[in-house]
Specification:
Elements: H1 4-9, E1 32-36, E2 39-42, E3 47-50, H2 53-56, H3 65-77, H4 88-100, E4 105-109, H5 112-127, E5 131-135, H6 144-148, E6 166-169, H7 174-181, E7 187-192, E8 195-196, E9 202-203, H8 206-219, E10 222-226, E11 250-253, E12 264-268, H9 289-301, H10 304-322, E13 327-333, E14 336-341, H11 346-354, E15 357-358, E16 360-361, E17 366-369, H12 377-391
Parallel strand pairs: 3-15, 5-6, 5-7, 7-10, 10-11
Antiparallel strand pairs: 1-2, 2-3, 4-12, 8-9, 11-12, 13-14, 14-17, 16-17
Helix pairs in contact: 3-9, 4-9, 10-12
The chain binds pyridoxal-5'-phosphate.
Length: 392
């Protein structure tokens, strides 16, 4: 069989290889080859200011020194041992996360969807119940369980039957939550994002989050906060739920956890943790030592100073966005921001990229910005300047 890389060296270029990839994504036509801090470069040498950060992943910036050094050192020592044994980076990471989510015990996996799958399973085992309540517009992943709890019917099309027993409530609507919880006695898990990221950057209100947490506790259901997109300092606190005044039983993390190496985690508090015993769940690569070493360095880097920086840069970006032509409203917290536009967002994303700025959409008219947490005031101004030119 011919080596596809030969085609590149024969001058056919990477475009000739696109058909070798299943088209699950509508990718922009650039091939990213290098990253440094808040910038990436494409195959042709084009430079971009990166306000996508791998979709809220590369919090410390591309090739950030601390996780890079930790992963590199671990690569020289041990790549993989399996979960039949303990490894030091995995244990250190579990302990660092237990410091952040007091007393929480970790299960490690490779992605956000897997972390949410683990949440669904542990909730069933811990409560002996089956029903799940989630939010309309919420997003929890693409595996069948996490997809079933994703409140976006367009994403279900063609993949049924889904996991049964999932009800959806409208975000920030307590009555709708009550309706979704009936019959209350059979609900195992209430699963929610503190800010619905993919669903349009919709922050949960404190009152709604607190009423939900209280109700879940009353009826004996577990509460899981999906911090896959909003966690790891992105909203200006380590977990976004800290700003909502709630104490979840379960937290899921992924994206920013290892600054771009693939890792997910389920953190379980005391009401949920007894749900799993040996043999109940697993993952060959979960807690891999190289990835866990990078995650330890990442978690350790998210200190009070960085969190203050996130809040300050977030305020700068939000107030700048609010003054741009065609921006109708700005939502979100810290550096997870969405701006509703008076026009379709797709062409705006394309035009910004053509001018050297990578940005995201969320739905048809929301511009989503998730830059690295280390973004500088100058870089925020540069991004706002490009967006102003694109929207004018
Ligand atoms: N949960 C949330 C809130 C997300 O934003 C995402 C991905 O965008 C996921 C879960 C799924 O994560 P992954 O793509 O790593 O499976």
């Amino acid at each position: 069989m011919s080596d596809p890389r030969d085609k590149v060296s024969q001058g056919l270029g990477l475009d000739a290889l696109h058909d070798a990839v299943l088209p699950t994504y509508a990718r922009a036509d650039i091939t990213v080859v290098r990253g440094d801090g808040c910038r990436v470069w494409d195959y042709e040498g084009g430079e971009y200011l990166d306000f996508v950060a791998g979709i809220a992943v590369v919090g410390l910036g591309h090739c950030a020194p601390a996780p890079l050094a930790a992963a590199r050192e671990q690569l020289e020592r041990l790549w993989h041992a399996s979960n039949l044994y303990w490894t030091e980076p995995m244990l250190r990471l579990a302990s660092l996360l237990a410091d952040r989510f007091e007393g929480g015990r970790s299960f490690f996996c490779n992605s956000g969807a897997e972390a949410n799958e683990a949440a669904l399973k542990i909730a069933r085992k811990a409560t002996g119940r089956t029903r799940i309540v989630a939010l309309e517009g919420g997003f929890h992943g693409r595996t069948l369980g996490s997809l079933s709890a994703t409140g976006q019917p367009a994403k279900w099309e063609g993949f049924g039957p889904l996991v049964p027993g999932v009800s959806f409530a409208k975000p920030n609507d307590v009555e709708s939550l009550e309706a979704a919880l009936a019959p209350a006695g059979d609900t195992a898990l209430v699963l929610l994002e503190p800010i619905l990221g993919e669903g349009g950057v919709i922050p949960l209100e404190r009152e709604f989050a607190q009423a939900t947490a209280e109700r879940a506790r009353e009826i004996g259901a577990l509460l899981c906060v999906d911090e896959v997109q909003a966690g790891m300092g992105r909203t200006g606190t380590f977990f976004a739920f800290e700003q909502l005044g709630i104490e979840p039983d379960l937290v899921t993390l992924a994206k920013g956890l290892a600054n771009g190496l693939p890792m997910g985690a389920l953190l379980a508090g005391e009401r949920a943790a007894p749900g799993f015993v040996p043999g109940d769940h697993g993952s060959t690569f979960g807690g891999n030592p190289v990835v866990a070493a990078a995650a330890c360095a990442t978690v350790e880097s998210i200190d009070d100073e960085l969190l203050r920086h996130v809040r300050e840069r977030g305020e700068q970006l939000a107030s700048g966005l609010g003054g741009l032509p065609g921006v109708q409203d700005v939502r979100g917290r810290g550096l997870l921001l969405g701006a509703t536009l008076d026009r379709p967002v797709g062409p705006v994303v394309d035009a910004a990229r053509a001018q050297g700025l990578l940005v995201l959409s969320a739905g048809s008219d929301v511009l989503r910005l998730t830059p690295p947490l280390v973004v500088s005031a100058d870089e925020v101004d540069q991004a706002l300047g490009i967006l102003e030119a694109v929207l004018a």
